[in-house]
Amino acid sequence: MARTLDHCVLPTGSLATARERLLALGFIVAPDAAHPFGTGNCCVFFQNGSYLEPLSVIDPAAASLAAEEGNVFVARDAAFRAALGDEGFSAVVLGTHDAEADHERFVAMGASGGQPLEFSRPFRNADGTEAMASFRLAFATPEPAAPCFFFTCQRVNALKVDRAALEAHANGVTGIRRIVMLASAPERHIAFLQHFSGQSAQRSEHGVDVRLANADLSAQTPDAFEATYGVVPQAAHIGLNGTGLAHVAIVFEVPTLGVLRDLLATSQAGFFERMGRIVVPTAAGQGALFIFEEISA
What we know:
Elements: E1 5-11, H1 15-24, E2 33-34, E3 39-41, E4 44-45, E5 51-57, H2 60-68, H3 72-84, E6 91-95, H4 99-108, E7 117-124, E8 130-140, E9 149-155, E10 175-182, H5 190-197, E11 201-203, E12 207-211, E13 216-220, H6 222-229, H7 235-240, E14 246-254, H8 257-267, E15 272-274, E16 277-280, E17 289-294
Parallel strand pairs: 1-5, 6-9, 10-13, 14-17
Antiparallel strand pairs: 1-6, 2-3, 3-5, 4-5, 7-8, 8-9, 10-14, 11-12, 12-13, 15-16, 16-17
């Protein structure tokens, strides 16, 4: 069974800034939620099961203590911010039914990102009722020193949640189509991507691609990325490619670009069009380059 893309972690200095930016781009943003270890998020959910997780440190003391006590999620977030600042795209997350088995596999392949993490937090449903959501995470990284990382997420007690209202975005986005990463030599990461995803990695004209159940992972050279999307990768990301994969862009699916084009023009959000795509450069609260493609494209 092909793995699914679960979510993308987008560090930000402020959840309020992230909310304002994402609303301007036509997304519906869920209410703020707090983790029990000092971080918090305001997520954007999609019909294909994927979502965005803007992540901020809302209790620095609690986050620092959690990192000291071995919380890999918080420690990795802090390392990313130290290397690249408070705004960016730090982690790609796949869904799993067995995070413990994933961890054992990551250790065996020499790509473990640290000890697994299990935690619970209250969750408020649309009708106002509350339940306790529990998660188990297993971490992986192609290189120990790489700021960008990967993990799998197991919902230990899967809650029945009706997110239909949160998935009806004004911009028409139905899901994430592709995650784009930079690497100076994408073929160096074929083994890692295959072990992490459980899927075959295929060489392409752009680099290396992995097909998931609901999206694709694409590792590209900086030159291929610029030629395709018309954006020159940040120097910091290019410098990181020797030590891992740098997460740089999220490609979304929309039924038509026309609605999105009008919305972005009205909100005065900067964008340009290239090869049948709408490209929105990074900004505070956005983290990654956002690219929109029509579903039929």
